[in-house]
Every structure is written in structure tokens, then in C-alpha cells.
Amino acid sequence: MIESKSQKWSRTFFWNNIPNTITTIRILMLLPILCFLYANLSVLKVMVIASLIIMLFMDKLDGYLARRLGQATRFGSIFDIAGDRIIEVTLWMVFAHLKLIPVWVPIVILIRGILTDSARYQALSNGKTPFGKQSMMKSRLTEFITGSDFMRAIANVKILAFILLILATMYPYLLGLGLIVTYISIFVNLLRGIPVIVDADV
């Protein structure tokens, strides 16, 4: 029996694949966040911060549920990364537009994302996945840098940078600290991207 498009959609999302549904919700949450960032109301800025924290929790939850419920798929691993990329690049671009960070920051993040995602596509075409049992990573060191809980926790410094930059729109004296954390986040981001590119030739 040939599966219809609606059946494929249902199998990929909703209750048949809760992690992918969570990723979709995270992406959709970006729309009101963008509106609130441009609003000149402190209460809306606080709501953005709360939303970012919720989105961080959801990002951890979808990975956990994918493993727990046996719903981990190749599409899911790529879709999760794509969701992260959409959210991160968009926020960096907005902060640059609001003149809170230099314009080179989102450019660097975008270029890094294009390179690493191209490398992951190459690995995917060879039957590998970004993480998991068929991981494209070739050594324990690269697996640690890209996929360990410790490095993923360090990578979340970008959330702290986002929060500080949002707070800086209300309390300008926090902008300096926000920039420092932003630069640390960029360094960590680039550090985690190098192994992906190096190990792409599978």
C-alpha cells in the first residue's frame, strides 16, 4: 500500500514523532519572540527571556524523548540541528540590527553553520548521522567536542549571551558583559564546528 503525503507527515510529526513536533514548536516560538524584541516594553523582554529558557529545556527534551521513545531518525537529527540553526542565526541577526553586537557576529555564525551543515550532509549521504551509533565523528576527542554533555553545556553560553543582550536593552550597563559572553560563545561555537568539518570526509 502506497503511503500518502498526509500519512508521511503524520508519521514524521505529531504523536508519532514527538521530538520532531517539539522542534517545530520551538521554531514557531521564534515568531512572537522577534516581535517582542522590537517592542519597547520591559514585560515583553522578560517574556522573551522566559521563552528562551523554555526553548533550551525543549531542546534537551526532544533529544531525550527521541532516545527514550525510540523515535530517533535521520530526519529528526538533521531537523533538530536545522531548528537550532534557524533560532540562533535569527537572534544574532536581530541583535546586530538592534546595534547590540557587531555585524560580523551573525556573519561568522552563518558561515560556520553553512560549512558544518554541508559537512553533515556529506556524512548523511554516506550513511552517517551527526550523533548516535552511526556518528560521523571518527575519534573520541571529536565526539567529546561535538556531542558530550559537558561541551553541550558549555555551548549553551550563547543563551546567557542572549539573555544579557536582552537585559542590556533595559539596563545598558550590562552591554559590556553581554559582549564578552557573546565573544566567548563565538569561540566555543567555532571550536565545536572544526571537528565536524575535519571528520566530514567519510
> Poorly predicted ranges (pLDDT <50, ≥5 residues)?
none
Measured on Cα atoms, how large is the radius of gyration? 18 Å
Percentage of residues assigned to helices: over 70%
- Looking at the structure, the CATH topology is Four Helix Bundle (Hemerythrin (Met), subunit A)
Order of helices and strands: HHHHHHHHH
Strand residue content: under 5%
Provide a count of the helices: 9
Broad CATH class: Mainly Alpha
- N-C termini distance: 36 Å
| CATH architecture descriptor | Up-down Bundle
Shape estimate: globular
Count structural domains: 1
The class by helix and strand makeup works out as mainly alpha
Number of strands: 0
| Major sheet size, sense and barrel closure | none
Rounded mean pLDDT is 82
In short:
The chain has 202 residues and is mainly α. Helix content is 75%, strand content 0%.
Fold and architecture overview:
- The protein is mainly alpha-helical and 202 residues long.
- The chain has one domain: Four Helix Bundle (Hemerythrin (Met), subunit A).
- The protein has helices at 5-12, 18-37, 42-68, 74-97, 104-125, 140-147, 149-155, 157-168, 175-198.
- Helix 3 runs antiparallel to helix 8, helix 4 packs antiparallel against helix 5 (104-125) and helix 6 (140-147) runs antiparallel to helix 9.
- The chain is globular and about 50 Å long.
- The mean pLDDT is 82.
